[in-house]
Amino acid sequence: MRVSYQSAVWPIVLGMSLVGCSGEPEGTGPDQIPPVRERELVVFLEPDGSVSDGPAYAYMPQHKQGGATALGLLCRMRLGWQPDHPALINGGADLAKKGPSKSDMYYNYHATQVMVRMADSPDGGKRWWAWKQAMQDYLVGTQSTDGDEAGSWFFEDCPYGSKGGRLYHTAWAVMILEIRHDVPILL
């Protein structure tokens, strides 16, 4: 696979494919990532070739976004960073400070994944439970109760939702609500 920063799509695909290996079924895990994909993923995670001690990542140079940072932190965990890694602690603190987004469910899903994985780290448990409660209260409170839309979500200001519509928002919201601390994480 040949990739470049000309497209923001490749780090999303690589990152999500790595995160998709995060369950524990036989034959998955960081050791199962083909070397070429891992090298390309490292370009996303460390575009300047240096070891990053900061929690911000970007799909395109100079365009750091919450969703990219949350996915980047999740990828780092998948590649072996433990919850006590300084950059993960800083990243988790930054996510907790920012809190759940009122419109960006892509960010919320990946940030929630980071927060739950850090639940057993110092202060991570408090952050996870506060995050979980805020996320759950917000999603339950914004779920539609009207007519054919009852039980679904749509967020007007979502940066990606105009293309995916109500189905996009509902799928992310349901996946977020299904993230639990007491069960193995498959995505």
Offer a quick outline of the entry.
With 187 residues, the protein is mostly helical. It is 52% helix and 0% strand. The two termini are 23 Å apart.
What do these coordinates show?
- The protein is mostly helical.
- It has one domain.
- The chain has helices spanning 9-19, 35-45, 66-78, 86-98, 105-117, 124-142, 161-177.
- Helix 5 (105-117) packs antiparallel against helix 6 (124-142).
- It starts with 8 loop residues before the first helix and ends in a 10-residue tail after the last helix.
Notable traits:
mainly alpha; 7 helices
Figure out the total of helices.
7
Q: Strand fraction band?
A: under 5%
The counted number of beta strands is 0
Helix content: 40-55%
Rg computed from alpha carbons, rounded to a whole number of angstroms: 16 Å
* Category from helices, strands and their pairing: mainly alpha
Quaternary structure of the protein: single chain
User: What separation lies between the terminal Cα atoms?
Assistant: 23 Å
Unreliable runs: 1-10, 21-30, 48-53
**Overall tally of domains:** 1
Mean pLDDT: 75
Q: How would you spell out the order of helices and strands?
A: HHHHHHH
Shape: globular
Main sheet makeup: none
What layout of secondary structure does this protein have?
Blueprint: H1 9-19, H2 35-45, H3 66-78, H4 86-98, H5 105-117, H6 124-142, H7 161-177
Helix pairs in contact: 1-3, 3-5, 4-6, 5-6, 5-7
